Amino acid sequence: MPKIKKQLENVLEHSNSASDNKSKLRYGFPYRKRSNFCCFQNSFQLFTSQPAEKPSFTEDIECSIKLFPHLIHVRDLTNDFIERAAGVIQIPKDQSFHELMKKDRIKVRRSDTLSSQSLLGSEEFCEPRTWPFIPTISVCKIDQAKINNEVLLMDEHKYEKTKKMLENRCVNTKEIRSAITHPDVREVHEALTELLETPIWKLLLKIKRNMNIHVADASNQLEMLSMELGILLNTVKHPGSSDTVKTTTKANKVCSTIPEELKNYLFRKREVSGFGIWNTEEFRVFVNQETKGRHIRENLQRVFASFFKTKRLNVMICEPSFHPYFQPGDKIFPTNSALAKTEKRGSIAKDEKGYGSLGGFVTDKNSNIYALTCAHVCKKKDHYVFAAHGDSEREKIGECVFSSDLQDQHIPIFADVALVKIDDEVKERCNRTIFNDVFQQSKVYSDNLENLVNRAFVYKVGAQTRLTKGYILSPALYITGREETFLVSGFGDVHFAEPGDSGSVVFMNENSSALDTINVIGMFFGSCTLNEEDCKEKSACFRMGTALEFLNQNGWDISFENQI
Q1: Which of 12, 206, 264, 545 has the CA that lies 20 to 30 A from 375?
Q2: How far apart are CA 261 and CA 305, in angstroms?
Q3: 492-532, pLDDT tens digit by residue?
Q4: Beta carbons of 304 and 261 less than 8 angstroms apart
């Protein structure tokens, strides 16, 4: 330090001596070197005694990655996407992401500073981070936990609760959910998840930029990847992401964006075989006579001009058709009850060729348990229902107590739904979770399905294809005799559903850091082929809210129960 002072003094003396003569001529008195140096010395001492605030790392907390289920979920989704996209577009090399795929332990670091002001207003504190990095918590005087410049700020009291959560030695899913969803730490857990996933989000943005280079020669495969990447970017959490997606609290009726006058007009046209919203920008009308296409288009654009200012009209010459599946399988086997009583238990089921999927379990107010499936799987009341997992022996699980008669159904609700009352002796052997034991509760999604287009992945677990992932292609499709349905498409060459999957429940993850809730959207009942050119089959589904409303009108007050 004395050496630095001496150097500074010499520089100042040289500068002052060079300007000394100018000072005398200008002011008429000699230069006071000592006085000015004292002023500089005081400033120098002030500078050296109060250095810029730098963080002092005080504590590292190591925890299991299982405490962050949304991170695991996003990690797997991203890896799956990258594996399929690698052959189509250039994927940036990111060794840190490959290391993340192998990690089962992560660290969270506490960093204290002299005050919070340097963090609140500075962008120099945080260096760019890539995986694997350590998310930082700064303990300071602040009323509410918040992220600033990729640092999570909180007070001492909140930190102690957060530390307790991170040090929790949870051994099962139920304990993990309980620890990370506690009201004292849930907000902090959401923020930590955002910090942990930010590097993944940045990697996906790089992939998106590379993908945009190929827009000019975009193929159908590239278009599908682009759509999947868009949904993935909306799934990954990062600072500010929680503010970008607002959940609608008020239930919106399905297809509320299609004017009733427009629907009534198209239903009256015999040449119209169907219509609906395609993605969010297009409105498709399917006509069965080529000569009527131009006439329908002109009338629609003239009568409903205001609606088609927001939706692109596309009149197509085709007749959509649905194909319920009745193929050999191994999931749900309805059997004539009178015939089953005369045979050995299970033997009749092996001779049955029609099968479908057990969609999920619901309960009534008397705690009776029912299995949901499609009416075209269980066509008749009083039929016994056998079930099997994989190639295991089939066993009677219950009796069909309700099946919607599609031939005589004249109400404005379409629901290809059946209820199977589960026998008392097998109740305890029924796993009532929709998918494994990952989630705590199930909710029936009642908002407008347009809110999910290009924003969320949907899933189903079927008897034939097991767990598959897809996206909502048409949130509202009206086909003659098949009202209030929606279409789901799989990714790439993989179908979302195939023969034997009828009755499987379509659901989505609620995009919270704890992944503690799933939203039940609907039920798959068959495939839909639009025309010869569009040869890939789409999965046709009806809304679960519509099905429960239909069952309620027929005297069945049932609901999904919270899981775990």
Answers
A1: 264
A2: 13
A3: 888 999 988 999 999 998 888 888 888 999 999 998 887 76
A4: yes
